[in-house]
């Protein structure tokens, strides 16, 4: 099973954009993440979905250079390795191989579509 789960809007000024989306659309901050994508530092803010079962909206900034205007769609699956195999077979490439992120309870990887757009794929880690 795989389903569309989130969009990450790439912004230059994380804090001012977060304030804008919160004040304009009533979004509520859920969590913040600092990590790396493809060796580049990122900071992101994930907001609570606006409806039950709804997709998550997130803002993301790259620490080494602002890159406003892009977006990273996200998909959640129960078999990330199969999704990566299917993506490569369909003409995509592995941007960053899936990696366990126990602190967040997920295994996360990034595919690039045939035109180079980055797509995040997430699988929940099994909890003991």
- Low-confidence spans: pLDDT under 50, at least 5 residues? none
**Secondary structure tally: strands:** 8
CATH superfamily: 2,3-Dihydroxybiphenyl 1,2-Dioxygenase, domain 1
Number of domains: 1
Question: What features would you describe in this structure?
Answer:
This protein is an alpha+beta fold. It has one domain (2-124): 2,3-Dihydroxybiphenyl 1,2-Dioxygenase, domain 1. The chain is built from two helices and eight strands; from the N terminus they run βαββββαβββ. A hairpin with a 4-residue loop joins strand 6 and strand 7. The two termini are 22 Å apart.
What is this structure's SSE topology?
Blueprint: E1 2-10, H1 14-25, E2 29-37, E3 40-47, E4 56-62, E5 71-77, H2 80-89, E6 93-101, E7 106-112, E8 118-124
Parallel strand pairs: 1-4, 5-8
Antiparallel strand pairs: 1-5, 2-3, 3-4, 6-7, 7-8
Short description:
The protein is of the alpha+beta class. The chain has helices at residues 14-25, 80-89; strands spanning 2-10, 29-37, 40-47, 56-62, 71-77, 93-101, 106-112, 118-124. The protein has an eight-stranded mixed sheet, with helices on one face.
